Amino acid sequence: MAYLQHELMKYVLGGRLRFAPLVDPKMILDIGTGTGQWPIELCGVPPNVQFVIDDADEDDWLYAHDTFDYIHTRFLLGSFGNFAEVIKKGFNYTKPGGWMESQEIMSTVYCDDATMPPDWPFLDWTRIGDEASMRAGKPMRIANKLKRWFLEAGFVDVHEEVFKMPMNPWPKDPHYKYIGRISELNWLDGLQAFTLASFHRILGWNQKEIEAYLVPVRRAIRDRSVHAYHKAHVPLVPQTILPDGKQVCGVGPQALPGRSRTIPGDRDDHGCDVIGYHDADRDIDTDGGADAVE
Ligand SMILES: C[S@@+](CC[C@H](N)C(=O)[O-])C[C@H]1O[C@@H](n2cnc3c(N)ncnc32)[C@H](O)[C@@H]1O
User: Entry's CDD domains (predicted)?
Assistant: First the structure.
């Protein structure tokens, strides 16, 4: 599941792990790193990559302010009570001239051609999942607010790209068809895990109720007649305020290649340190709740 999500997001971003144009970075932080596939692919294996257990919700992180050249988050919807606060902390822990980038999926399901009926089972599942996350105090609908939160945190020159991720291979376009194919596999593979944690723990459904409920949801995921998709939001910003208060010119990526289909996966081979941050309490869950994306 985690592997599929990783490949899916990479493909959606044109084969890239990041957009930030890093030049000889020394310290990178991946908040909520999960399996650590992202930092390992970016920078290799230990000692270049260290995994640190800490709660990013805490006021103080384990590092000094202005430590990181680049802070990255991905798939952290439903992980934090106040993601805006995490971004504010990110601002403080990013070096002047450094970058912060989020790659987050909106839990809302979209459709542009009225093929999605209002009682579509997957839509219902999304609504109930969102309600559960709100009750738990960890909202999932964060992606479309990221740009505003980056700006409110003090970042300037926030550049945001939004990518469409079809639910299944309904599109004709081969690029989107391929995204849909991985997406469908990911949803079918992960649906039970995505559901059990929140529907059982927060809403009190029992396993039998959940299994029965998921039957039409699985059918909906495979339904090519419904042209549904999700959106991935990728705000990216340089932390441009210098210690003396001057601003570096707000350089963003000149041409974001996410829309291109031919960008090869890239890799930083400059021996930077990557820190993968995760929360041990959540990772020891055995029912799959820890890594539930939706
Ligand atoms: C869905 S996974 C995302 C994995 C990874 N970012 C990726 O893209 O594959 C969410 C991760 O966030 C971590 N997490 C959740 N709350 C956290 C917190 N308060 N502090 C640090 N990590 C947290 C969980 O432990 C889990 O590893």
Answer: AdoMet_MTases
